[in-house]
Design brief:
The chain has four helices and no strands. It is an all-alpha fold.
Amino acid sequence: MSQPHHEPSPADWAEALASLRRRLDSRDAADLDLADLYEKVRRLLLTPDGRYREGSRGEVERRLGIGRSALRYIEKSNPERMRREVHERRQREEQELAQHFVPREHGES
């Protein structure tokens, strides 16, 4: 037997929006943590003027247990840009949520 169809209540909308925001917060926090990790690895690899520290590449590969291609990806990363992109993406998403995720008034279609 199927459930009768019911219109979402304002509480349903609020709960769904809160759940979505928690997931977005979690995703953004993970992306920011990744940017921080990349920055730390880059500091282990590179001198302040951007040159490789002697023996650092192999040492980082061994200690972190990551392969050369992953290390190259981190080397080419731009943690500051990553943080900026997370912030810009979140602003866009918040605007979209404000624009589209609005509960319909009862009786509207």
